[in-house]
Amino acid sequence: MSKNEHSGFTTSILHADRRKAVEHGAIHKPLHTSTEYSFADARELAAVFQGKSGYTYARQGTPTTAALEDKITLMEGGIGSVTFATGMAALSSIFMTLLKQGDHLVSSQFVFGNTNSLLGTLDRLGVTVTFVDPTDAQQVKDAIRPETKMVFTETIANPGTQIADLSAIGDICETHKLVYVIDNTLTSPWLLQGKSVKASLVMNSLSKYICGHGNALGGAVTNTGLYDWSGYANIYDSYKTGPANTWGLTQIKKKGLRDMGATLSSDAAHRIAVGAETLALRLKQSCSNALALARFLETHPGIASVRYPGLIQHPQHERAAILFNNRFGALLGVELVDGIDCFEFLNRLNVVVLATHLGDARTLALPVAHTIYYEMGPARRAEMGIGDNLLRVSVGIEDEEDLINDFRQALAQCMNDASLR
Question: How confident is the prediction for the chain on average, in pLDDT?
Answer without folding.
Answer: 94
